[in-house]
Amino acid sequence: MLEIGRVAVSSQPLMTIYRSTRPSLEIPAVSVTDYVLRKVDTQPDATAFVDGTSGRKVSYAQLSQQIRALAGGLAARGIGPGTTWALMAPNLPEYAVVFHGLAYAGASVTTLNPTYGAEELAYQLRDSGATALVTIGLFLEVAKAAAAQAGIDTLIVIGPGDATPIAEYFGEPMQRQVEVDLDTHVVVLPYSSGTTGFPKGVMLTHRNLVANLEQLGGHLELDNSEVCYAVLPFFHIYGMQVLMNFTLSRGVKVVCVPRFDLKEMLELVQSEKITRLYLVPPIVLALAKHPLIDAYDLSSVKQIFSGAAPLSGELAEAAGSRIGCSVAQGYGMTELSPVTHVVPEDDYRAASVGTLVAGTEARLVDPDTGKDAEARGELWIRGPQVMKGYLNNPEATAATIDAEGWLHTGDIAEIDADGHTFIVDRLKELIKVKGFQVPPAELEALLINHAEVADVAVIGVPDAESGEAVKAFIVRAPGSSVSAELLDSYVQEHVATYKRVSHFEFIDAIPKSASGKILRRELRAAN
Is the pTM of this model over 0.70? Predict the structure, then answer.
């Protein structure tokens, strides 16, 4: 049964705290790289990565050697604590080499979305304080443009390309992690809009990442007999932690691909005997309905795990029944390293995002009164996976994490008698398109700069394929007759494809509160 504790906090009323029923957690005092490579000594010749596109394989021993050699070369050049590098690459074995080479040398890495345009990339490069950008030849053109805007002179390329090869940075293999404070040292800076506003650098420490990997182990029981499919991008916290770091820490074979192609995925499942598919709802939808599925032997699949966006109970059951496997999902945020809930393999509930992972506490709080709610409220989380804070943004940090360490997720949830959590609504403004974050404020700031736009509001609307689609409400400037087509072209010039506005609606005025805040709930209610 669910353990509920009631404790008094200062002069406030009693609060209801939901606690994980998993065994208590002891977080290993090691760096994230040491944790991820912990299986190397016992299975050096086992395959760590298969490049699904080329068939190239990298063993655990080779992966470890490359990471340590890069770390040694970086340290010899003085690249370590206090240095931040940016990494923009698709899912390749080298992604883990660069990520962990920097981490092992004591540096920080900020992970970039390769689908971003130069302006979006330059913003993150400047904000993170990155001094170098590592990419691949395919992305060099946009990387050079972004680096020039951000004032970065050092461009490094994985594989062929007109930049310094990453191989030049390899040196004498480093045998131990450069000394850092595991509790406070920021090892990675992914960017998230949080509950509102522009993207912000999420400061995640070695302890944050290691704690969450250990927490995941209590719910996802993987061993070195498993083969996992990794298409969700490693730059995204879900791909980074679950598909790259967690699987490697369990000695799993990871079949990685740079982009999703249904036919290729089915061929790889069949040829590599993939046992676990880590996906997002639009891909689960394809598994449930696409006729191509019946042409392949998918009997090796034991579980489909969905994350990054809500998965309906009906869709989960349809996919699971067709493939003949269990379907589960989890819940988390970039700010939570990222996982707080996972559906137990032996306790599936339709539409549940699962139960709390070990060492994690939750509350449901009425957003209007700030008091604990009995049945439904904003989900608050506390645990060792909670981020250190937002980079250079103490105001946003304080608005997200309160004085008692509770992170306010912005999601409205219900929790049943057995501890299963159901996300039923969202307070936060963030839009999720195919699992990717689309901050309304970013698009609003872009559109308001158009000469023929007097005011604008952006919301997410339900979409069967993408989970959500972007809709913009536009107030035309006086005398303007600007069309949706012209505004669509304008937006396309400045943002990544998944941030495009799918629907435009022209209205006379944007509903706002007395303080001037956009009343998005009114806009959503009309759609």
Answer: yes
